[in-house]
Write a structure and sequence with these properties.
- This protein is an all-alpha fold and about 70 residues long.
- It has one domain: Up-down Bundle (F1FO ATP Synthase).
- The protein has three helices and no strands.
- The termini are close together.
Length: about 70
């Protein structure tokens, strides 16, 4: 029971990653709308931030799988 609870908590990192990617995308879209000439640098920062947020979600998923499979 406690292993399943730990795995569920580890998978919740995907929720945080999804919210953070959504917020970052909306802010980047607003920034590009205000300064179209800076679109390339904004896109570069957005892609880097989204990759780091997604990596956090993947780490949580891997930890959940390890908890479930190593019982």
């Amino acid at each position: 029971m406690s292993i399943a609870l730990g795995a569920a908590i580890a998978v919740l990192t995907g929720l945080g990653a999804g919210v953070s990617i959504g917020i970052a995308t909306s802010k980047a879209t607003e920034s590009i709308a205000r300064q179209p000439e800076a679109a390339s640098s904004i896109n570069m920062a957005l892609i880097l931030g989204c990759a780091l947020a997604e990596a956090t979600a993947i780490y949580g998923f891997v930890i959940a799988l390890l908890l479930i499979l190593m019982k």
